[in-house]
Design a protein that fits this description.
The chain is an alpha/beta fold and 347 residues long. It contains 12 helices and 14 strands. Strand 9 (196-199), helix 7 and strand 10 form a beta-alpha-beta unit.
């Protein structure tokens, strides 16, 4: 209906990372004289396309850390139970994991059982959103939660509006405790009373990951936000409050600045917490001291362990067999014995 619209002076694009796609692009290009302003929490795209064709500058808003410090967002707790699935062999499509292969890998009784177990252990009774790969996976997850006596419902793209509203209102009322989503509430969904995000979809997309965990960060009285990551996304993308540098140039890899390595996973409760802390703030577990690498302790003295210089070893060699023992111990290629034997005139 673009031909019916009087040319606007201003176009405001919400979720502006979509500006280069489909109908967004059609609207923007139809009115070249309009000023275009975009808003998004994640100014990047998995396909690597930049936003610089439609926007001339990024004006950063307050950081997520500042918003948490000042009470505008909840500071969540992060838990990442060990993932019991390998991503090896799962194809990629348009920069992310292919959903059919991924769903087959993630539809595992062990993984879903872990999700139910850790929900009951860490966030029992809370309102939660579980992010799944496809409808078959979502039905499996909802069935596992319902089978464990935890009321769960599915929200998906082909549902009528009234059906969607009913699931959301049941979640708000608490008659549904876990709302299982398939790409429906990853963006824009705002229900402050939701306390828990259950991540069951591994993703290569920093943007999708941040959008998903952002669904539970709206503050609400007495709320504790918790992220249960069964998909390995925290270790790949970091925490919501990590500093990141954004760019209009595209290429997601260049746009993100991951701080995942600054965090440690607790072996006791699987919480993710800053490495600078001496112990886990959730359960008190302390990491063991690193094993000695250069020194060995005995009751009598400290003995430095040092690799003997090669020249010293060679000076003691009498036969080719001596050279073979050195080569085997140090992983040298067979040519080492030949050339050193020739150099030392050994038989």
């Amino acid at each position: 209906r673009l031909h019916r619209i009087s040319a606007p002076k201003l176009i405001i694009v919400d979720e502006a990372h979509h500006a280069v796609a489909g109908q967004y692009r059609a609207v923007i290009t139809a009115f070249p004289s309009a000023v275009v302003v975009g808003f998004t929490a994640t100014p990047l795209r998995l396909d690597g396309k930049g936003l610089g064709d439609y926007f001339g500058e990024i004006i950063p808003g307050p950081s997520v850390e500042w918003l948490m410090e000042n009470g505008h967002l909840c500071r969540p707790k992060y838990f990442a139970p060990p993932m019991m699935v390998s991503m090896k062999g799962i194809k990629k499509r348009m920069g992310d994991y292919a959903t059919d292969d991924l769903a087959q890998a993630m539809t595992s009784a062990k993984i879903t059982g872990d999700a139910v177990k850790h929900y009951n252990k860490l966030t029992p009774g809370t309102r939660a959103v579980a992010f799944c790969v496809n409808i078959r996976h979502a039905e499996h997850v909802a069935g596992m939660f319902n089978g464990a006596g935890i009321p769960a419902g599915i929200i998906k793209g082909d549902m009528a509006t009234d059906e969607r509203r009913k699931i959301v209102s049941d979640l708000a009322a608490g008659t549904v405790r876990v709302m299982v989503s398939v790409d429906v509430v990853s963006e824009g969904f705002d229900l402050p009373s939701v306390e828990t995000a259950i991540l069951l979809r591994p993703t290569q997309s920093l943007g999708l990951y941040l959008q998903q965990i952002g669904r539970i960060l709206r503050p609400s009285p007495g709320k504790t936000a918790t992220i249960l990551d069964h998909a390995g996304n925290i270790s790949k993308h970091g925490l919501a409050e990590d500093d990141r540098e954004w760019s209009l140039d595209g290429a997601e890899k260049a746009a993100k600045k991951s701080e995942a390595s600054t965090h440690r996973q607790c072996d006791g409760c699987y919480a993710m917490y800053p490495r600078l802390l001496p112990a886990c703030p959730e359960c008190g577990w302390s990491p063991p001291p690193p094993p000695p690498s250069e020194f060995e302790h005995s009751d009598e003295e400290l003995v430095e362990i040092r690799r003997a210089p090669l020249a010293s070893l060679l000076s003691e060699c009498k036969t080719r067999d001596d050279l073979k023992r050195i080569a085997k111990a140090r992983g040298y290629k067979p040519g080492f014995v030949y050339y050193k034997a020739k150099e030392l005139n050994l038989r």
